[in-house]
UniProtKB/TrEMBL annotation:
SUPFAM superfamilies with a match to the protein in the record: Ribokinase-like
Protein name stated in the entry: Ribokinase
Lineage start: Bacteria, Pseudomonadati, Planctomycetota, Planctomycetia, Planctomycetales
Every Carbohydrate kinase PfkB domain range: 4-287
Sorted UniProt keywords: Kinase, Transferase
GO molecular function: ribokinase activity
InterPro entries with a match to the protein in the record: Carboh/pur_kinase_PfkB_CS, Ketohexokinase-related, PfkB_dom, Ribokinase-like
Gene name tied to this protein: rbsK_1
The EC number(s) this enzyme carries: 2.7.1.15
Amino acid sequence: MKHDVVGVGTVVVDHLVLLSQHPEQDAKTNIISDAYQIGGPVPTAQVLLSRFGKACAFIGSWGDDQYGPLIEQDLATENLNLEASRMLAGTRSGYAQVWIDEQAGTRTIACYRPQSCLQPDELDLKLIQRAKAIHLDGWPEKTCFAAAKIARQAGVKVCLDAGSLKPGMEQLIPYLNVMNCPRRFLTEYLQTDDIHTGGRALLEQGPELVTITDGTQGAWLFTNEVCLHSAALPVLSLDTTGAGDVFSGALIYGILEAWPLDRTLKFACITAALKCERLGNRDALPKLAEIEAVLQTRDLPLSRWD
């Protein structure tokens, strides 16, 4: 079977803890509610794409601890092909504790990555070579790099959600077609906070298309021909966890649909904003019809530089 998107990356269990507001250091506060969900940049983006009708396969791993079965069941329920993924005996799954400040609409995360990950020689070459696109998060470093090389050699589009600076980014970026990152990545990787300078610098390293997100300030899209900026959709934000992951998934959807760049950028901004109105990254994922309705009825300001 030829998949639309094959994902390679980290999967974690998020323990979401909703607080009225963050307590001061060395103080206590009451929990309003809590829940467990499956997270990670690539799985979250793929679940969105799967719900939008795209065929997705995930290449990753989880431990044989109490969270492993939860991960496998969740991803299988969301129709992700897991034939190239597996449980690694004697290891711990990735885990994150997410404290959500209800009053401020922000979140603080403490996490650990999985103890062990699939190695480059464990990748399913045919699965990658037959895909329309692969989606990476840059971790584990050597495995993502190997997947990118395999995909480019096969003419498969390579997409990266660079949520934070990881080892080996300078080797991986030249193999990318599409790169999405938050504004803080520019400072971490390029030592600049200037979005136009950073966007152009990333293009020069290899990608054909670069997007940079900046929360309530919207998002920028760069190609060698044009720079676009879309304002953010104003929403009452409850939980920003996974907003960048969702933006990446929506961006890839627009690219696969061969939409114009302005529509693709607005679609991604709207999708990420609607997700932030709700808690989590499963029940919070907006439906395609909901996004299209906003796209048709709300005129997000768009700026363009040729």
